[in-house]
Structure formats: C-alpha cells, structure tokens
Amino acid sequence: MIADDVQLGEGVVIYHKDLVNLYGCSVGAGTRIGTFVEIQKGVEIGEHCKISSHTFICEGVCIESGVFVGHSVVFINDVYPGAVNASGELQTELDWSVVPTRVKTQASIGSNATVLCGLTIGKGALVGAGAVVTKDVPDYAIVAGVPARVIGDVRTKKGS
Fold it and tell me: What is this structure's pTM?
C-alpha cells in the first residue's frame, strides 16, 4: 500500500506496489524500492538510493542521497521500547519519543544489519552484512560485527 500522503520524486521505482507499505514519507527522485519494504511517516529518503527488499525504515530516519540499503535491514527509533506504559496500559505515541537517525550520502548498509536509534552513519561509510550498529559510524569507515566496530576505511580498500 502506498498512502496518499507519500511524496515521490520523479522516476522513483517501486517494485510490486501492492507488496510495500509506505505512508507519510518522502522519497527522492530516481530512488528504487524493493518488495516487502515498510517506510513509516516522517522518513526522508534522498535521491538515487536503493532500498532492497524486506527492509524496515521507521519514523525518525533520514537517509541522504546515493545510499544503498541491503536486504532485510532494520532501523530502530526507540531506546526503551515497550508494549505498555508504567500504568500497564497499552502505549500510545504520548508514552514514547522518536530518536532520530541519519544515514549520510553514499553510505552502504549490508543485508540484515540492524541500526539502533540516535546515531549517524557517515558519508561513504560501509556497514557490513549482519552488523548491529550501536554508535556513530565515521565518514568512510568500514564497520562490521556485533556490536559493529571500525575495521577499515573504504578509501584504502577501493581498488586494492
């Protein structure tokens, strides 16, 4: 389902529109979105990104232009998630607050990575497949592992 309040730039490609869930978000020109993707309200996705299938991008995430997001990547937007509030009643939007996350231009996030909230993935950075990103990733860093840690620099790895 693509809700009426979704803003799509020119040339956005959404594969199998009946198998995605987009609402209240904006997607920049030339971006491609795979099947079984959910993008929630308030999310901003830049131009010429690739969002691979089975990915979940929650409220509070900003993805700049030229970013690659692999298959089954999950973003989190709450530090202390819960089903009920302190009174034992179902939580509402008043019981929690969104913690923003930013993915800077030309970063790449490998398949099955989990990105916790309140952090920035730097320009041109590379997050390894299956990584759990728990803190900021510097520009051009290569991070991998659980928790993710810096293991290299993309500028020294390209062409080697």
Answer: 0.91
| Cα angle, residue 69 at apex, residues 80 and 127 outer, rounded to 5° | 75
Q: What Å distances lie between residue 66 and 30, 73, 105, 107, CA to CA?
A: 10, 16, 6, 7
**Residue 127 in tokens:** 């997050």
Instruction: Tell me which residue of 4, 97, 7, 2 sits closest to 44, measured CA to CA.
Output: 7
> How confident is the model over 82-130, as pLDDT tens digits?
888 888 888 877 777 889 999 999 999 999 999 999 999 999 999 999 9
pLDDT greater than 60 at residue 159: no
- Tell me which fold the domain 7-79+91-157 belongs to: UDP N-Acetylglucosamine Acyltransferase; domain 1 (2.160.10)
What is the DSSP code (8-state) at residue 128? P
What is residue 125's predicted lDDT score, i.e. its pLDDT?
A: 98
Query: Which residues contact residue 63 at a Cβ distance below 8 angstroms, ignoring those fewer than 6 apart?
Result: 43, 44, 45, 46, 49, 57, 69, 102, 103
Diameter of the chain by CA atoms?
58
What DSSP element (H or E) covers 157?
helix 154-157
